[in-house]
Amino acid sequence: MAARKQLHLNAFLFACGHHGAAWRHPASQVERLTDIAYYEELAQTAERGCFDAVFFADGHSVRDPAAGGLWFLEPLTALSAMARATERIGLVTTVSSTFYTPFHAARMLASLDHISGGRAGWNVVTSMFDAEARNHGLEEMPPHDERYSRAAEFVDVALALWDSWDADALELDRGGVFADPAKVAPIHHRGKHFLVDGPLNVPRSPQGRPVLFQAGASEQGRDLAARCAEGIYAVAYDLESAQNYYRDVKRRIRGAGRDADAVTVMPGLVTYVGSTTEEAHRKKAELDALLPVEQSIAQLSLFTHQDCSEWELDAPVPDLPPLSEFTGPQGRYDTILRIIEKDRPTVRALLGTLAAGGGHCTMIGTPESIADDIERWFHGGGADGFNLMPPIYPDALTDFVDEVVPVLQKRGLFRTEYETATLREHLSSPPQ
Amino acid sequence: MAARKQLHLNAFLFACGHHGAAWRHPASQVERLTDIAYYEELAQTAERGCFDAVFFADGHSVRDPAAGGLWFLEPLTALSAMARATERIGLVTTVSSTFYTPFHAARMLASLDHISGGRAGWNVVTSMFDAEARNHGLEEMPPHDERYSRAAEFVDVALALWDSWDADALELDRGGVFADPAKVAPIHHRGKHFLVDGPLNVPRSPQGRPVLFQAGASEQGRDLAARCAEGIYAVAYDLESAQNYYRDVKRRIRGAGRDADAVTVMPGLVTYVGSTTEEAHRKKAELDALLPVEQSIAQLSLFTHQDCSEWELDAPVPDLPPLSEFTGPQGRYDTILRIIEKDRPTVRALLGTLAAGGGHCTMIGTPESIADDIERWFHGGGADGFNLMPPIYPDALTDFVDEVVPVLQKRGLFRTEYETATLREHLSSPPQ
Lengths: 432, 432
Known about the structure:
By secondary structure, chain A is an alpha/beta fold. Chain A has helices at 36-48, 75-83, 102-115, 130-133, 144-162, 219-228, 239-255, 277-288, 293-304, 330-343, 347-355, 367-379, 395-410, 423-426, and strands spanning 8-13, 53-56, 90-96, 120-125, 189-190, 195-196, 211-214, 231-234, 264-273, 361-365, 385-388. Chain A folds into two domains: 8-271 and 366-426, Luciferase-like domain (TIM Barrel, Alpha-Beta Barrel), CATH 3.20.20; 275-360, no CATH class. An eight-stranded parallel beta barrel of chain A has the order 1-2-3-4-7-8-9-11, surrounded by eight helices. A two-stranded antiparallel ribbon of chain A has the order 5-6. Chain A is globular. Chains A and B meet through α2, α3 and β6 of A and α2, α3 and β6 of B. Chains A, B: One of its GO terms (molecular function) is monooxygenase activity. Chains A, B: FMN binds at residues 58, 94, 144, 148, 218. Chains A, B: This is LLM class flavin-dependent oxidoreductase. Chains A, B: It comes from Rhodococcus oxybenzonivorans.
């Protein structure tokens, strides 16, 4: 009997949670953001829920110290420590192809793969902010095309470096040779962006190649994902957008000559779990009420090209002009229209939804109703799994692990224990 | 009563040990070189011995796979894991100022400092091999002066980034601000080598500034050390060379307007400990016997400008011309002359001494005789401590910790337990 297709789950770790006001909540652990044990405990919770992986985004600048949501520990160092506090869960780190050299990236990821016994993953990003560029020697970010051209070559070099050690290169023959020089080969890469001789100075790691993730939404991002990613982080507020993205990216994967089923597409997912729907909404409302209103309204005015300052906070959002009449950035406005159409939120609830993961799918309800929604996306061609973005840590993650995961397991959608050892195996990706 | 001046001890971790043939020894753990638990256990052994720190050197290329002595795990990731397996011992990593950006270096070190609760140290190196340059986009290494000019600016930027967060910047006031923007300040650095706006995206770490180490032997290296290092790794085969170096570098530290007593000078130290002098020599001879003879003799011929291929391996080294008549590189030849004069070794023993740490001090004997030698260097103005380079791991470290450390403790030269929490405090350096 062929194994039934299984759902995949990542926990996206971020500060006190993905809601912009999470740190203000009495249950947030904001005092522990530089404490590695905080992140270890979150990873252990996700591991208790048999998640495929935990995932760190990353950035290279400080934006608004007063408002929170800053970076704290650097992900490669943090995940190396967390590797020793966990046993099976994957450890995915974001590494920027614009600010690292491919040798550093390949080496540190291979090292993390050794330290974790084959659980390392790499979310390739090109970074975006000029403030980040100005921390790494550039006056501004290179243009989008340039960044993606560099990213594509960066990934090729990293893959070549990981392949520069044959799996059986180490002989460790005390009376003979340490490693077979014929199995540790330079790569002599000379490209548009990089000069890298190799070989890597880390022997081949348990996964051979740490698992590649990509989250690009642009044409070039999707093509890079199609060509090399084994996991894809997506953004979709509703099932229809998810299906459109899913179809498009799977088509591109097939177009790149790869097995589309072997690539896991995971939209971001914000969940509020309650024993009743009302309790779930109350959890969201509690966080939404902590948002600094003036600032959020000003941002909404910017997003909608409306003066929202006179809007009644606890009344439904007034009608907005259709997308076709909107002259600003389309993506965000489209998401706002979809949120309004799907949820009919109050102004404050809309601000809260935007403040928790922005345009990502938001499911609010009982464990059963959320499992229903997940199943609908999973079987409806919208997702192979989800990148869970708990609005507040640790509570929203604990809720999901203790309440939703058992329902998914009962339905046969999700593993009840780890049956595999490496992240690539968890994702059912072919060995590399 | 003023505290009596205390000795400082680092354990220099390197593969199977510092003897070139260590991996060939039956007691080596060569099969575990990619196993993080191996390094954790070594750090725990050093911590049992109350060492100030463990230390990783680093390199960015693979030289001779057949001969061993390769790099395995990347130090920043490895030490982050090791931080969680230890409680008090310092964790010093080498980071190259030629291949990193100062933002990456400052950030990862600050992260390690958080993860370890204030135990991070940074050995600043400029790297040296063209093979390393060709892994990071350069056809060859920049010239020595250029590298040191970059290193000096690199350190200044890193220090400024660490200082970009005031210690009390984080308010974490749930009803107010997250961090006080006035206490998280950009650095707006525009120098010859770097453009870095800052601030760092990691809040001020427990030590404020991770502890700086330097090992430069050149003029520029000594000056950089004098200006900013809190610990200095030195190379001296005998006490006289150690005293010369010690005097020179302490003079430079005072010249830079700093307190010379607050900077710990630690020559490398290779030890063979036995319950008798004979047993200690037998331990060395066992390792020396594992050296591939032809290769070592060829190297010795190169170092001495002699044809050594006809020398009797187990006879004393024949007389060599004085330094004044030698036309090759002086430093290495001078060391060879000193080894011959001090130890009257056989040819094989000379090869072994050169194969274990090269020109570093080598002490062979009982715990008491080695403690005597250490005391002589320590009280004789040659060292404030030592960077221990065990010829073979774990045995030579275990011997030192279990046999020599108790003698040093009994003599009141070394701590019997950790009385301080951070690496800077262990080193009795002033807070930064």
